[in-house]
Design brief:
39% of the residues lie in helices and 22% in strands. The strands form five sheets. Strands 15-16-17-14-13-18-19 form a seven-stranded mixed sheet, with helices on both faces. Strands 10-9-8-11-12-20 form a six-stranded mixed sheet, with helices on both faces. The chain has a three-stranded mixed sheet with strand order 1-5-4, with no helix packed on it. It binds nicotinamide-adenine-dinucleotide.
């Protein structure tokens, strides 16, 4: 049986306690994981602090960037190993891990390695009313030791999305991957060693949130900032834990994202795009659309087409190239999603398709598969329309006017992403600018340029990462004013 250990100061170390890593496709145990206790989290933070003042801290930007490119090379060299580990941990289809998760990990390091070399800062020629001249310019310094806490849905992609800009900015990190998906963060340590990233720069502590490694990290007085992706409620708990030491936080949290489908859309594109937006990764992407609003003229036609797509999904074994719908991440998460399937009916929903658990007659029946599901007929105030479910499910409601569509889309405490489907260019711009979210797509979904700002409004997060926004979060700026 495999063992995933903590990685502290360049060494793999066991834990006093441990837990099982479960394969969501059949419920089997695939590895044991060493849980870090408070003393080990402390050691990891100490190692990260020391590393700031060692070889890493003395490297110039060009050399730092070169090592991050070597790290991307080392990830690509281990491509199959990362894909295998990610598929085993998450149950996601192998084509998705090979086309999205693992390639993006390497790209994350390359993008921020290149960006840090050209990231300039403003300077100001200053003149006071009494005629004194001065020059103001800012210098960028690392923030220090960054606590990185990540979820299970896109484990390596989201971890490297934070580790890459943190390291590019000269920081050191202690990462706490999700207890559900410990593998790829651990394997990344081997790639770090090969790329010549000095010991102590990248540390991994495994465990849970409250009373475990997650909480020990957020409360640690010597951690300078926390970057977190996960549920909004967890974000609130982390904010509280980080408050006594006034740590800066960057939060990428949950969503209840809307899609607006206008009658003038290209229907094939909209149905295909929204089939991805609702069902990709079994609906376990923060950007997934769980609320779909369709102009009444094409309401029935759209529902039939999306239903056809849902029913043609293939919930196979994750390693089968033809599989395009994996299981949910865990038994516990399936209980949560099924509770919403039950609630939807209690709230008066009409089930267009799905609503239950598929039967296979093989070991997948011990896994956490669930049917892709479409509902209609709920009131906008229904809990299933208001709360994030995080499964392969959406509710479709009709609208009669652009104003009504915009009002329904914005009637949420979340504000991560929206997508708009129309061939009217002016409408696309007009509606996009009215969305109270961090990211709006027009006639596409999940199309990402890593230089653009990424983040959410309201319960969906605090701050923006991506491009220069990441570098600004992971840097301390020192403004220097020189009297001339
Ligand atoms: P989660 O909040 O349960 O856990 C995320 C991480 O936080 C895990 O590593 C967990 O161990 C840790 N954690 C939990 N409680 C903690 C605490 N009190 N202190 C410190 N650490 C703690 O989230 P999840 O279930 O792993 O992920 C799903 C959620 O993530 C969904 O809500 C989804 O929308 C969100 N998400 C958001 C984005 C985004 O970019 N906005 C991306 C992916 C996922």
């Amino acid at each position: 049986m495999k063992l995933f250990q903590n990685y502290i100061d360049g060494r793999f170390v066991p834990g006093k306690r441990g837990f099982a890593d479960i394969n969501p496709a059949d419920g089997s145990t695939i590895a044991h994981v060493a849980e870090a206790d408070a003393a080990q989290v402390d050691e990891a933070v100490h190692a990260a602090r020391q590393a700031l003042h060692g070889e890493w801290g003395r490297l110039g930007i060009r050399e730092r960037a070169a090592r991050l490119h070597s790290l991307a090379d080392a990830i690509e060299k281990r491509f199959d190993c990362f894909v295998h580990a990610e598929v085993a941990d998450t149950g996601k289809p192998v084509w998705l891990a090979s086309r999205l998760d693992v390639p993006r990990a390497a790209v994350n390091f390359r993008v921020f390695a290149d960006l840090i070399k050209i990231a300039g800062l403003e300077s100001f020629q200053t003149e006071t009313p009494d005629g004194v001249q001065a020059l103001n310019y800012a210098v960028r310094k690392p923030l220090g030791v960054i606590g990185v806490i990540t979820p299970w849905n896109l484990p390596l992609l989201l971890l490297t999305w934070k580790v890459a800009p943190a390291l590019a900015s000269g920081n050191t990190v202690v990462v706490k991957p999700s207890e559900e998906t410990p593998a790829t963060a651990t394997i990344l340590a081997e790639a770090m060693e090969e790329a010549g990233i000095p010991r102590g720069v990248y540390n991994v502590v495994h465990g849970f949130g409250p009373g475990s490694a997650g909480e020990f990290l957020t409360q640690h007085p010597d951690v300078n900032a926390i970057t977190f992706t996960g549920e909004s409620k967890t974000g609130a708990a982390i904010m509280k834990a980080a408050a006594p030491t006034v740590k800066p936080v960057s939060f990428e949290l949950g969503g209840k994202n809307a899609a607006l489908v206008f009658a003038d859309c290209n229907l094939d594109d909209a149905v295909k795009g929204l089939s991805d937006a609702v069902f990709l990764n079994t609906g376990q992407v923060c950007l997934c659309a769980e609320r779909v609003y369709v102009e009444r003229k094409i309401f029935s036609q759209f529902i039939e087409a999306l239903k056809g797509r849902a029913e043609s999904l293939n919930p196979g074994w994750p390693n089968d190239e033809k599989t395009n719908l994996g299981p949910l991440i865990s038994a516990q998460h399936r209980v949560k999603v099924l509770s919403y399937y039950k609630l939807a009916k209690e709230e008066g929903a009409t089930v267009v398709t799905g609503g239950g658990v598929p039967q296979f007659g093989d070991k997948r029946d011990h896994g956490f598969y669930i049917q892709p599901t479409i509902y209609t007929g709920l009131r906008e105030s229904a809990r299933c329309v208001k709360e994030e479910i995080f499964g392969p499910v959406c509710h479709i409601a009709p609208f009669d006017s652009e104003e009504e569509a915009v009002a329904m889309a914005n009637d949420t405490n979340y504000g991560l992403a929206a997508s708009i489907w129309t061939t009217d260019l002016k409408r696309g711009h007009r509606v996009a600018q009215q969305m109270t979210v961090g990211i709006t797509w027009v006639n596409c979904w999940f199309l990402r340029d890593l230089r653009t700002p990424f983040g959410g409004v309201g319960l969906s997060g605090i701050g923006r990462e991506g491009g220069i926004h990441s570098l600004n979060f992971y840097s301390e700026l020192n403004n220097i004013c020189i009297r001339l």
